Amino acid sequence: MGAGFTSEIKRIPTLAAWVDLLGYGALLREANVDLEGPRLLPALRRLQIFQASLRAYTDASAATLVVNDGAVCVRDIEEDPKQKQFVDFIQGVALAHYAASAEDHRLGHCGMRTVVCEGVRYQLGNDRSLDLNALDMRMKREYPAVEPPEDEEASFEKWSPWIDALNDCSSKLGVLHYLAVEQLQFNFAFTRAYCADGAGKAGGLVGSRFFLELPLYEKLARVLGPLASIENEHAYPFLPSVAASRPLRCIPGSIRVAPGAKAISVNVDKLKTSIQFMPMEVRFYRTRLVSTKEILRARKLGQELKPEYLDGEDPPWF
Question: Thinking of the domain 8-129+180-224, which architecture would CATH place it in?
């Protein structure tokens, strides 16, 4: 390393969430990790739905990297006096946590555990790193009409245009043969979330819940009001900012402290420290997809489109 190498390093405040598919290792052990046996199929199907749910419900509020039965969501927080970036990140990760958990519970499994921490990362200045946001923006700029098929089991022919576009943009960014995700390099928010999750049930992180580091919980309380009753169920629309022909989906949601829960202190042996978390629960409402044509017609007539809930008025909390 030449002299002055560290002069390129920049310190950036960041948030990170680790999403863990609970009990997946046990499912593999039941199958004896037999790659040819029929008992492996439930594990494979569960993983497919987990990853498909995250892909469908993550948005630009966080850069997301899925690694087998886990996922990390990260976002830099800079010059955010109104806390918009912070709230967007919490809402976006909460939506991904809920969607993946709801689908997993429908399969008879135990859902996700999501651990959210704050910290800093250091921008190393490596010009061969992959910036997930840069790849996403390039895809939208150069291939605005190309979207992955809605059906996860669609034929290769239907997937091919999206795969070709992804490969083309990745190639232009120079990342096909080398992958170092910029947002995860020297990222201590990610380190803290990942290592805290490793404490698991024995460390106090029990159940398919959304564990928010205590200072983040307190900040959210200041921004949104008392967290004992954050129930503004029409306040958080998540609308895809892609091609206008894609149906818009309004997903109102709520967040609350888990009933009877108090802040817990998790001993993180790997970091030789403890981190305090507040066990939270979130829920969102699946709504009927609304077409662009319906939206434009309603605007023209001065009408308000109200969401039509698919799961009834009282979906479960996760």
Answer: 2-Layer Sandwich (3.30)
